[in-house]
Design a protein that fits this description.
Strand content: under 5%
Number of strands: 0
Structural class: mainly alpha
Keywords: Membrane, Transmembrane, Transmembrane helix
Protein name: DUF2214 domain-containing protein
Number of domains: 1
Helix content: over 70%
Shape: elongated
Organism: Tardiphaga alba
Order of helices and strands: HHHHHHHH
Length: 163
């Protein structure tokens, strides 16, 4: 436990749930593996959506493909949040003081802002496009930003242990 952390995070780590996670032989390990599996689902779906928005996979109609991948991305993101909370709870006071974790949280916020922007400005324009249609203005930029942001989040997530 890190005494320099804000009291809220010390309390989260010291809670019964935090102690139970740390004392269990399986919970932390299962959450860690679950986090990686959820990351695979999330990044796979994001990669397909971004590839389509950037103009790739043009033989498919973007609307149906993006809707299917969106559901998978949401499921992966929910899995990441749930398993991430378990991992965070076990070491909250230490993790919240980690600069790489703070960068990761900021990047997640930026990634979610990009999702909102793409959903509001790009998705309505591509929902009914037929295959091989050019993507609207801004689609490629939103897709490339998404790829860079979410890849950076994953890199930060793996790097937390080293800083």
């Amino acid at each position: 436990m890190t005494d320099a952390a804000p009291a809220l995070f010390i309390a989260i780590e010291a809670s019964g749930i935090g102690a139970a996670i740390r004392q269990s032989r399986w919970v932390y390990m299962v959450a860690n593996v679950g986090h990686i599996v959820a990351l695979l689902f999330f990044t796979g779906a994001i990669a397909v959506m971004d590839a389509r928005l950037a103009g790739g996979l043009a033989v498919t109609a973007p609307g149906p493909l993006l809707r299917q991948m969106r559901r998978l991305a949401i499921a992966g993101f929910v899995g990441l949040v749930v398993t991430g909370l378990v991992l965070f709870t076990a070491e909250a006071s230490h993790v919240v003081m980690n600069r790489v974790f703070l960068i990761k949280v900021a990047l997640i916020g930026l990634g979610l802002l990009n999702v909102v922007w793409v959903e509001w400005t790009i998705m309505p324009k591509v929902a009914a496009l037929p295959p091989s249609s050019p993507m609207p203005a801004g689609a490629r930029q939103g897709a490339l930003a998404s790829l860079v942001i979410w890849l950076s989040v994953a890199i930060c997530g793996r790097a937390i242990a080293y800083f």
